[in-house]
Amino acid sequence: MSGFLRTRLAESVQAFADVFRNPNLRRLELAWVGSATGEWAAIVALSVFAFESGGAAAVGLVVLIRMLPAAAAAPFSALLADRFPRTRVMVAADLSRAFAVTGAAVAVFADAPAGVVYALAGLVAVVSTAFRPAQAALVPTLARTPQELTAANVASSTIESVAFFAGPALGGLLLAATSVGVVFAAQAVAFLWSALLVRRISVEALVAREAVAGRRGIVRELGAGFEAVARDSRLRLLIGLFGAQTLVGGALNVLVVATALELLDVGEAGLGFLTSADGLGGLIGAAGALVLVGRRRLAATFGAGILLWGVPLALIGVWPEYVVAFAMLVIVGLANTIVDVSGLTLLQRGVDNSVLARVFGVLETLVLGAIALGGVLAALLISVLGIRGALIASGAFLPALALLTWRRLAALDAAAVVPADRVALLRSGPIFAPLPPAIVEHLALSLEAVTVLAGTEIIRQGAPGDCFYLVADGELAVSMDGRETARLGSGDSFGEIALLRDVPRTATVVAKTDALVYGLDRDEFIAAVTGHAESADAADAVIARRLGTLRPEVASL
Q: Is the pLDDT of residue 294 over 70?
């Protein structure tokens, strides 16, 4: 191993360890342990309950009841995490899920109609669509460095892989020793555990979010996640590839059963081992994903994960042997971790924090819908092409898509390098200094460079405000009613009063020398500042200080 690689791996391991030294991230990750493990255990119990109540058709019905309403609800429930403190949304979701699953346990013990249990399971799935986007959107706020952000996603993916492997095993053991109702009760305890840990997370509260939402209107707020994806080709690409991967993942749920029981004829025990191979691969992938910590260029890695997800499935169809199938599914699990870590980190870095939960809500909708559709398409492919043909066709789809989009992914990487001078410029002022690293990096990439010649008027007193400015170089003069009141130089900023107080420009700013300034769009500025209490307080202090240099009637605005 080269010295560079050893150093890089040591730094990655250190960042991973820092995740659990960060009290807030540690609580979030441990909450995810309880939530994910309990959920997988309960899915096993629910499937057994449905099968005993109505056979395979009832199991399929339960999948639809859990998936389709949740897919429809995700974009709207995710709004809660952009309007209210995300920890409160997660606690409320955990408590609601605990209440619902407790009701399911009571229904089972009371021999209530199966439909009651199915409906409560569907409610749990719907409420979960508020928890997961809030969790994903909260991580960038808690991470203290960019490396810690990626490492936190590695930890979350590892926990999910362990839960996928251990949850069903735990559910099976509880079922063997007790009953379906007891498993549901255990899931309720897991949700309460999660709520207790999330409640202890200390994070700056969101402020003024309701006021911003009120100006835009509730209908636009509900659709803001879709709007953000629709206007940004980068998000469309990433979320589209996520959707394609989960479509094939939904197909795999059916294909692995058909492969084990018909193509390989290894029976139910063999099916269990093949299913666990995915979780094993996820654990191996988590160790490999440590090398992604601190990398800025993750889009090509994301594309490689998409490609690696599909090729093994096609190879199972080409070479249908049990050992080969097990090894290939381990690789699929490894690829799944790479896709999750790189894709989630790219979204967290690239989306405005004020709509981040709703963008994850859009992703949740796509994922749930694609999983359900993938299962239907797999059955259709098997009927038309046979099991081997279905494996080859499903496996070839993702590599083809990855190759077709490779140049666009490479372009994302080329644009992902955050200029250090812009980050330093943002950090030098009191308004942006308190913000989490991921938000500052996003703002740095959003800055628009403007070169102005001496004598150029940048803003005019009385005009509407649509932009905030940072001075990178040069000297500017601030005047009011024709009287110069201040000079601005490198590291200074202006334009916040009109944006945060919703008033016309209070002064005119003219370049005294040739200058370089960076502009930040109104919505980006307001979302960043009002989304963090300490930053909002710093902005108020700056405004008060500046208004104090102006006439009293202006200060009263």
A: no
Q: How far apart are CA 369 and CA 158, in angstroms?
A: 24
Q: What's the sign of the alpha-carbon dihedral 116, 120, 121, 126?
A: positive
CA dihedral 264, 267, 269, 274 (to 10 degrees): 30
Given the structure tokens 């502009």, which residue do they identify? Answer: 519
Phi, psi (deg, nearest 5) at residue 56: -60, -35
Mean pLDDT calculated for residue range 172-189: 84
CA distance 212 to 221: 10
Classify residue 480 as exposed, middle or buried by CB count within 10 Å of its CB (0-12, 13-18, 19+): middle
Mean pLDDT of 272-285: 74
Q: Measured between alpha carbons, how far is 409 from 46 in angstroms, rounded to an integer?
A: 40
| Residue whose token pair is 């690689």 | 5
Q: Give whole-number Cα distances, 306 to 309, 332, 340, 453, 513, in Å.
A: 5, 10, 10, 48, 51
Q: Any idea of the CA torsion for 374, 380, 383, 384, to the nearest 10 degrees?
A: -110
The DSSP-derived string for 255-324 is HHHHIIIIIS--HHHHHHHHHHHHHHHHHHHHHHGGGGTT-S--HHHHHHHHHHHHHHHHHHHHS--HHH
Residues contacting 6, CB < 8 A, separation 6+: none
Task: Please give the Cα distance from 138 to 154 (Å, whole number).
Answer: 15
Give dist(CA 368, CA 128) in Å, integer. 12
> Residue 372 and residue 395: Cα distance in Å, rounded?
18
Q: What is the pLDDT of residue 112?
A: 92
Q: Which amino acid is at 444?
A: A
Token pair 């010295």 in the structure block, residue = 3
Helix (H, G, I), strand (E, B) or coil at 474: coil
Spell out where 198-311 has E strands.
Answer: none
- Could you tell me the pTM of the whole model? 0.72
114: phi > 0 → left, psi -120 to 50 → alpha, else beta; which?
A: alpha
Q: Is the pLDDT of residue 381 over 80?
A: yes
**In 143-232, which ranges are continuous DSSP H helix?**
146-177, 180-199, 209-216, 218-222, 224-231
Alpha-carbon distances, residue 405 vs 241, 336, 367, 409 (angstroms): 9, 18, 20, 6
Question: Which residue do the tokens 């229904």 mark?
Answer: 107
Question: Could you count the other beta carbons within 10 Å of the beta carbon of residue 272?
Answer: 15
